[in-house]
Amino acid sequence: xxxxxxxxxxxxxxxxxxxxxxxxxxxxxxxxxxxxxxxxxxxxxxxxxxxxxxxxxxxxxxxxxxxxxxxxxxxxxxxxxxxxxxxxxxxxxxxxxxxxxxxxxxxxxxxxxxxxxxxxxxxxxxxxxxxxxxxxxxxxxxxxxxxxxxxxxxxxxxxxxxxxxxxxxxxxxxxxxxxxxxxxxxxxxxxxxxxxxxxxxxxxxxxxxxxxxxxxxxxxxxxxxxxxxxxxxxxxxxxxxxxxxxxxxxxxxxxxxxxxxxxxxxxxxxxxxxxxxxxxxxxxxxxxxxxxxxxxxxxxxxxxxxxxxxxxxxxxxxxxxxxxxxxxxxxxxxxxxxxxxxxxxxxxxxxxxxxxxxxxxxxxxxxxxxxxxxxxxxxxxxxxxxxxxxxxxxxxxxxxxxxxxxxxxxxxxxxxxxxxxxxxxxxxxxxxxxxxxxxxxxxxxxxxxxxxxxxxxxxxxxxxxxxxxxxxxxxxxxxxxxxxxxxxxxxxxxxxxxxxxxxxxxxxxxxxxxxxxxxxxxxxxxxxxxxxxxxxxxxxxxxxxxxxxxxxxxxxxxxxxxxxxxxxxxxxxxxxxxxxxxxxxxxxxxxxxxxxxxxxxxxxxxxxxxxxxxxxxxxxxxxxxxxxxxxxxxxxxxxxxxxxxxxxxxxxxxxxxxxxxxxxxxxxxxxxxxxxxxxxxxxxxxxxxxxxxxxxxxxxxxxxxxxxxxxxxxxxxxxxxxxxxxxxxxxxxxxxxxxxxxxxxxxxx
Length: 749
Fold this sequence. Notes:
globular; RelA/SpoT family protein; RelA_SpoT; Beta-grasp_dom_sf
């Protein structure tokens, strides 16, 4: 299809003018001139580039800048940075050029947005290194992360033009890292869209099914909401309050999670939406008026006392303020009984902070609210944890620590003097001690909660008042890392024990070097260190040396490593693999060498390539012929084949996307696979016999294991079977579902 350059030029100008119109209310002095300058530089730098969709590349930075202004609420500095965010990475323009034209602040932001280039030691993750670099900018300018989220959102919105394996990698990374980050920064609208788009590409069938069902029952849902809110609106009108009230459906991703976690079909999920009341009142009346609206709602509908959540009196640490209650509606339509409905009550200011998060927080920064205090407290904790992070910790470990702290719920506890301390749910008395002060944590021997003595591992509950007990003789140990939950406490404990560990690390390295010489290896090279690390499952080289130095691994064990290494090398030689497969690039090159006449030589054909490449089927998800799969290059176990919906795939694709290779089943494959099925239903005499008869006699499928239990008239069985492919599996499941008494048959994840 021919490209109409003039039409594209007009479209670029149209998008640029829309950006200026959206930004106009807050532009000052020569802001418009600076934005124009950034736009022209970006347009010139990207003029020969096109996206995978075929569109001019400049559409992307313009779209990212538009999201920054329109959906996050950022200003001129962010617009300029968004327009230029790919210039240094993709063109000849340097950071020095950016600093000369726009100053050090914008140059610093773009540096934070520019991916790290170069080679990486095998076993590390380029994605994790880039994520760490971006996270560390929290210490300088949070706008780096906000622009990155806008960049990721636009990439997700336009992901359909990418290759399938690229879609899977980017979508998994988005769900694993970027959606939790948006959640923690209070960007609810962006977090929800990232999750839904992520699901669209990682579980397309499930996404489509839920989306269709939501569309089908939209009219019934709207009718129910209108009926539910009618008496509430009447009472609010009598008070002459300025308000908006409407029902908001749950996101597709949250519905999917509920179906999966509670094993409940879509038709049985009743809380598919929440009703939100947003009132427009002055700051000084916010709290009182929210509680007055709560009183009106509970006058009309009976509340569930255990489901009241008061984030108006005590906001979440990301600044979220709202009053949530769950009430029982009256029967309506085809419902013979009422249903539970969540009602959210908040002010216009709270709603803006809930949807736009950090940017809205800065808008209201001048107001002395608990939101500002909570957000500043959380931000300082994240900065502190990042700044004190152990430099020897791998990027993957840091990303995991930060990721684990992003999605947590919170627990509100108090010091003996009544000071509020907010920690993540699951925090222990030891976490609390380190939150008070590093030295208090290091000397902690126990605590009193409500005057009662508790151990360091005691998990805290809302409202606990904690007194920490210390001793000058106490010192942190590695066992403490299993007790604490917070990133801050983990970082502090690692700092305290690092000095003590140094002597063990030095001793261990010396021991290994000496023994290797006896075994015929002249020196401890980086390659041997990495092999030993993988063999003993050590996190890094220092961890390996420490475990030998401390005596956790006997030095005599090295002879077993040597013999296993030699055996592995013999097997590799027998398979005639000349090039070691260490990444996707090397894999592609090697496959093309051994299969030069095949068009799809960069794809691993499962079933045909077994004699050429060392690969196995992953035990965590048991892929079978017909499943969508990918290959993952491990450090010392060759290639593992995983299903794309394997429970481990988001982590593998997010942390080590560069080690993922394309894989598909050979068309004429003749293999058998073990599949685990879970069968649930209502118990009756002869049920087990009927199930096994269908499997063995009618379908001629071999059963390798069978375990069925019965409780309170219900049965649940786990059966392991030898299956040929997904079509065979679908036929088997269909037959089993027709057995009287069987309610559900599912492949065990």
